[in-house]
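Box 3.1. Reading complex inputs
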Amino acid sequence: KQEVTQIPAALSVPEGENLVLNCSFTDSAIYNLQWFRQDPGKGLTSLLLIQSSQREQTSGRLNASLDKSSGRSTLYIAASQPGDSATYLCAVREDNYGQNFVFGPGTRLSVLP
Amino acid sequence: NAGVTQTPKFQVLKTGQSMTLQCAQDMNHEYMSWYRQDPGMGLRLIHYSVGAGITDQGEVPNGYNVSRSTTEDFPLRLLSAAPSQTSVYFCASSYGALVKSTGTEAFFGQGTRLTVV
């Protein structure tokens, strides 16, 4: 059974710092991996999607990498801002009939002004 | 540009009542699914559908029912609400993994916060 973990569970940094969020998964048979952002009491907003054949994706200050063979992904946030404060979730899409997503528990990020 | 629309946003039910959570998408996505999000448990899959007329159970299907009569709609029915079903429910949709030319990014609704008393 696919399991997804995220480290750290919570992170507090001063504004301007670069930071890395980690995601690990146990089964490398994935179709893709997606990073989401969730603000308190809100839905999920897609940040980056990495196909299984890709190594990384970039959007603005965000960069996500994928090492499928080792079951790891990282989300790099450059020059963090207070507006980046949220919970970040990674989800792997399984490469099987259901094509379902398995989510990690999330990393709660606080960027202090 | 509606995306994935969930209704209602909030609901309070009494134990034993039934209700339907609505989910609609306007992107012609084959795949739709329902998740519940609970503190400390993350998002868990309830039911999913890979196309109209096809539904399957996820990780936590007990107490829930779904149908997929159209591509656009995927309602989730609570048959007899229990306090253990108090949660935030999210609907998601995407193109199927086989439709490689169009990508498989998932889109989520804004959630339905359900309280069962």
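In summary: Chain B touches chain A through 25 residues (CB under 8 Å).
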